[in-house]
Amino acid sequence: MPKLLLLAAVLVGAFAGAARAGAEPKIAHFTLWNGLEVVVVPDHRAPVVTHMIWYKVGAADEAPGKSGLAHFLEHLMFKGTAKNPGDTFSQQVAAIGGQENAFTSSDYTGFFQRVPRDHLKEMMALEADRITGLVLTDEVVRPELNVVLEEQNTRVANNPNGRLAEQMDAALYLNHPYGRPAIGWRHEIETLTRDDALAFYRRFYTPNNAVVVIAGDVTPEEIKADAEATYGKIAPRAEIAPRRRPAEPMQEGPRTVTLADARVEQPSISRVYLAPSSTTAKPGESEALEVLAHALGSGESGRLYRALVVDQGIAINAGANYSGTALDYARFGVFSSPKSGRTLHEVEAAIDAVLADVIEHGITAQELESAKSRLIADAVYAQDNQATLAQWYGSALATGQTVEMVEAWPAAIRAVTADAVRMAARTWLDRRTSVTGYLVNSLKPEEKHS
Amino acid sequence: MPKLLLLAAVLVGAFAGAARAGAEPKIAHFTLWNGLEVVVVPDHRAPVVTHMIWYKVGAADEAPGKSGLAHFLEHLMFKGTAKNPGDTFSQQVAAIGGQENAFTSSDYTGFFQRVPRDHLKEMMALEADRITGLVLTDEVVRPELNVVLEEQNTRVANNPNGRLAEQMDAALYLNHPYGRPAIGWRHEIETLTRDDALAFYRRFYTPNNAVVVIAGDVTPEEIKADAEATYGKIAPRAEIAPRRRPAEPMQEGPRTVTLADARVEQPSISRVYLAPSSTTAKPGESEALEVLAHALGSGESGRLYRALVVDQGIAINAGANYSGTALDYARFGVFSSPKSGRTLHEVEAAIDAVLADVIEHGITAQELESAKSRLIADAVYAQDNQATLAQWYGSALATGQTVEMVEAWPAAIRAVTADAVRMAARTWLDRRTSVTGYLVNSLKPEEKHS
Questions:
Q1: Chain A CB contacts of B445 below 8 Å
Q2: For FRET with A131, which of A324, B169, B274, B353 sits at 20 to 30 Å CA-CA?
Q3: Crossing angle (nearest 10°) for helices A418-428 and A285-297
């Protein structure tokens, strides 16, 4: 059973330039009696359907000391129910030639299948059963913990980039649980138990805390009937409190983290600034940050690449990114890797000069138009991918956005002005709320052990 | 009502070179039926007595989002009970010419009075009444919140050193609640309510979670009788769970924090390393760190001062410190301020060279003997101060130590070897588990806004 852990940044990163729709399909959105939200995205190009359930719970909802629990439970959700024991569900998906997967971020946990259209109702019945019917025994829980630990090894412990990203997040968030890795701290994952998983499951897995997104060759009417016949049979089993996480205090000073690993062949610098998310930003602000990230650093036409790689020839790459899909904070990032013979500090100074210029003078009219066109075009192209569309709506609804906000996104991008971009740069590219990470092969001798 | 917030570091810092007894008075230690521990430290030089109660709860026991609650409750404990309303308690202390105060750390909350011996039982009765009898109305809670916010202003918000220390702790602890300031994050203090305070009070203020320490012109026998007649009347009202806080993950890389404040006239550098506390250290390890801190940096004879100030003439001060009194982690610190015309980086390189030398070669036999003699002498002198002695036992018992461990401390210091000191330096002066703080007047132009 392959399972994906999509950390918030990864998932959203894939989206940033991908999934904002222009010419919208006619989306339907309704709520069942039990509180389950359903979003239907008709797409009649092929007789296939993408079926997703998004629980509004993620790693940032875990109790202190229990990090990794949301992701561990995601894995355990494949262990069967009383009605569909063992891997019945996965076997049925495989038998009909379908695909399935699952993912956990700081804000949500999701499961999906992509199957022939005729098998959708079957998937809905199986997924509905799994909302409350999970059966866990120690025999399945223990080995799965090892699977999760192995995943942590691959993604973080044995991955210098993963290790640095983990330590940078911990330094970026002084108080908010986004500072904990979505996969969990290894020493805490090791202590997770069946009881922990079941308590978390009973508290957060309930129809009134979930969103089902169905994209494909369907109509809202038939989905409504099928949803009532399947999901509609599941009673809510927990009240869901408002999702309020501890907020960040005033961040007072620039931070750095240096990670040395003998496997690093190419040093790099990356910096993340605390930024508002689509959900927390003032109107237009998140869109201005998207445009700014594209103008600064999307590919080889971005300012950072042109300045550091093309003009100055001191770096082998350079870019920027912004990921707005989050319930609370988002991050604005810049990065670069020096050319052989150049230092991280030279590259950092060059990045700082580019950023200072954008803060002072903003971006050009041409950069503005180009970034906006590209973002909107990407959103249109994204409609070609059923799963991407479904994921776009699901992640938005699981992080406090609405269907209307998703639909209005291309217009909001079109409305971004050069002034708004300069203001966003001036407001949010503030070193005091940033962490700069240095990935190096080894610490300087005096840094190593003193 | 003056009240002291002693952050763990401050309290323990005052102790590091102060309160380890050599020629012990005959200490008595017993537990009442209700779980209250009592420690009696006879001291017959004057007809006065120091009476302290230590609750085994501090800022690190607060729920996420409620930082500052332990300290806020400390303030509110002076608001009166049903039996002794308003400031009856404080007025009685004042009327007999006594002194009183209170303090909150990450691990404990304490209250004390120093009064003429004949009034001790009266203090015990008043303090016993206050364990469970507190009455809080909105009329007293609201104004006290402003007092606490004003205290936060003075200690942190308007104090560059305080701001840097706060942000460094948040960067030092990636997961453990010691990363939260003991006084609380300002934005969270602002939201604390009467209900929060009462819930915390009912959960943690109970005889079975407290230690009473009485030092002065008393005998264990009379204290036992008086304790039973006063504290013995209070029934336990809550069960106390083991104090397990989320532990630190592997810390992978050196971190820095830079704090710029226009009021800074003298830049400085400070570095804290995560270290074991007296409670978590292997036998002898915490004592070796004490010796190391003294050899490196206690006053003008320490290595750092001699190297940076005397020999190289690049700094106006330099030192080291270690504070072992904590339930979980402790910190080993080094610091210096450059002479005018010298940079923080020059000073940092000089510190690193001193530390590298100690890691490589350890300290000399003469440094070892001198540090040990001074530590033991300080402990003997500390017995001159009744309140210091009481505080020593109280803080130890509130952080997982025993009376026997306190009494054995001078012998443990005597037993420290040069090898143990070198090993402690090699193990714990590891940059990967450290944060270096730079206090400066202003960020470099490119750091300011990019």
A1: 356
A2: A324
A3: 90
